[in-house]
Prior knowledge:
- The protein is α/β, with parallel strands linked by helices.
- The protein is built from 22 helices and 16 strands.
- Helix 9 crosses helix 20 and helix 14 (390-402) packs parallel to helix 16.
- The two termini are 35 Å apart.
Amino acid sequence: xxxxxxxxxxxxxxxxxxVARMAPPPALPAPRAVGAADAPAEAxxxxxxxxxxxxxxxRRAAAASDAAAEVLSAQALMATDPALADRAEAxxxxxxxxxxxxxxxxxxxxxGLEAAGGYFAERVADLDDLRDxxxxxxxxxxxxxxxxxxxxxxxxxxxxxxxxxxLLDPAQVLALVTRRGGPTSHTAILAKIxxxxxxxxCTGAGTLADGQSVLVDGAAGTVEADPxxxxxxxxxxxxxxxxxxxxxxxxxxxxxxxxxxxxxVNLGALHELPTAAAADSEGVGLFRTEFLYLDRAQAPSxxxxxxxxxxxxxxxxxxxxxxxxxxxxxxxxxxxxxxxDEQNPALGVRGLRTATRDPELLRTxxxxxAEAAEGSTAEVWVMAPMVSVPGEAADFSALVRAHGLxxxxxxxEVPAAALRAGSLAQSCDFLSVGTNDLAQYAFAxxxxxxxxxxxxxxxxxxxxxxxRMAAAAGEAHGRPVGVCGEAAADPALAPxxxxxxxxxxxxxxxxxxxxxAALAARTLDDCRALATRAxxxxxxxxxxxxxxxx
Length: 550
Ligand code: PEP
Ligand code: MG
């Protein structure tokens, strides 16, 4: 009988295909002394490993899309640097074994790049990846990083980091399965951006083998190994029906009786821009600007930021773009903005608090947004992450306006902000509920931990209570209140959120079709009745079941 493993399902769809595993970085074996007689052969093997790694990267660059090809070619160039091979060879001729010689040579180059700072320091991650690949090639171990089996595959990994996934080719990846990760982890967010079914926090993922056939069901949160052909065919038919349902309704979001609910997209990187702009949406509800700052030794310049924001505003000409200012810290650490000595980074200087420590960081960002907005027809709104008290919202709004930007808002991600949403709304033009962090802080549950997924479930009635408070405060003050956390991507939850008083939903482009269809099937009164049911439920599972039954 086929084995079925469970985890946290992401995305409503399913897909079947052969497994390709992402291998971990190779562990260095115990050091081995190389005698003078063996040294030339060992040195030649080291050079050959570097040559093969470069050739492999060049091959992949030739087959990749523009942005990915550039990254891969640049990496291949690094691998062919003669100084690197010379240094590794010298170490081998001195008696160091090949693997340790490679690691040491790469280590020296790494230190050099770090010392050079700026752009060079940002390349250390690429160098680390090259080191791992070269050592793996030399030792005959599986190649770390994304697999390239040459055919579509189900990617199975321990976990995925943003750097792993920048090169992921959506045409080749059918589904994602990770052993770790929670409902709002990077893998979960990425899966939604790519419109892929995923199961994260799947503890059995380690038992899956390369080439093994699996059926991944994002709606059920299951991974079935060696499924029967009939099971695969039934899942494909269900998937087809789901896609057709999502494509049925087009245009601005509204309930069956015409109550408007703005449907917006979340945007997390410039390479997502073409898909985001092409989606049937009224704009961007959450533009996560961290991508500009990540993997860097220092903040991007005013000019660089302006150019990036302008690109987004141009792509969304005539539509709304809600720019979220830098949300550094905790799950998004930045070397130049995040203190390394905090014991609880999620409770530390993160989000808007970073601006208190380094006001110039925020001022430069606001100046860049204002400059890019100048002359653009995009309706530019700006909001702050991790606002905790009304004073922070008021200071932020004043600063935004001082930069000539007209619309300022605050994210509601901390329970205190939801409890005092009325006071926040007095100084803000809008509020946006970040349910990912709001759940984390309401339930004191680390959002990156798959084992706490039940607490982080957006159907938790206590979380819905906080959303209701924020929405009611917005309504009382005539301010729109959106939801831009992962909760907004759940088509079953969307009518509930609208029933709680939420005025817009922002999610990955691939999720909007089903959300739009779900809203079109309910009147506003239906939505309110569903919200009442969900709030009255004793737990998340009952809330979901009650609403699905209604
Ligand atoms: C959230 O916390 O819900 C949110 C939208 O912000 P992020 O996921 O980027 O922290
Ligand atoms: Mg957040």
